[in-house]
Amino acid sequence: MHDILAALRAAGEETRLRLLALCDRADLTVSDLTRILGQSQPRISRHLKVLCDSNLLTRLREGSWVFFRLERQGPIATLIEQILAQLPADDPVLLRDRARLEAVQTERASAAQAYFRDNAAQWNAIRSLYVEDAAVEEALVAILSGGNADYRLGHLLDIGTGTGRMLSLLGGHADSAVGIDQSREMLALARTALEDAGLRNCLVRQGDMYALPVDDASMTVVIIHQVLHFAETPAAAIAEAARVLAPGGRLMVVDFAPHDLEYLRDQHNHRRLGFSVEEVEDWCRRAALSPLSTHDLAGRPQAGQSLTVRLWLAERPAT
Fold first, then answer.
1. Exposed e or buried b for every residue in 118-136, given b needs 16+ CB within 10 A?
2. Cβ distance 257 to 306 under 8 Å?
């Protein structure tokens, strides 16, 4: 009873209720929330501390940044979901907050698009920072093939296909394969690579990873390769990937384990500095997927720094 009363007291203040509504929509930093609400950073920080102390929000530290997200598990999480569900959709204050949140997200998306456009030609080199592509690809193929040289993948979807490397690697083992990316520059490179490889069963399309131009339950294998760390809301990207998976279909996520290389955020537009095993597995479970395995590949140290590439495999239950 004490915990519930504390949660109700914490939520029962206008600014804190607005903060909860925003963190229900995205993982946000103090800087993000200060811009959206138009209040001072010390004031926002005090409210966030109250919400975290009451287990309504969770703090997620990544290098020098801290993200805040709505607590999703336990009785307090159920309570706050019920409270947020009662908020009127047409409330002018909440509508303004959502509009400002969308502006912040659009600004970041524009910066990411500019980065991809400027770096399209050298993308393969950039995204293999510290970890040999060959080692990652060998591990990925071993997991998906089960050691069978004649493996088949059915209908393959590569989200954030970039230069089409995953399609080039796996397309010959798929009945059909589709690569989705927002960047026209990336898609142009991918098309050229697929044409050069003679992979007529593969195609690329422009699209958003949060709203894939793909039918429900139509894909056998979905790959999200080195994309989630750019995502504003990684959980939503995984949920959308789960939507298009057929029963028995598999999701392969390849990304970094948690690290503190801040320059990747500043110079390469990484939104997130890696992910824990538990975090990605939790997102999969919430999307009705069953985590199957996790594999780590340690990168070669350079100047005292290294990155670990992590591969997650999850499955859409057959029933």
1. ebbeebeebbbbbbeeeeb
2. no
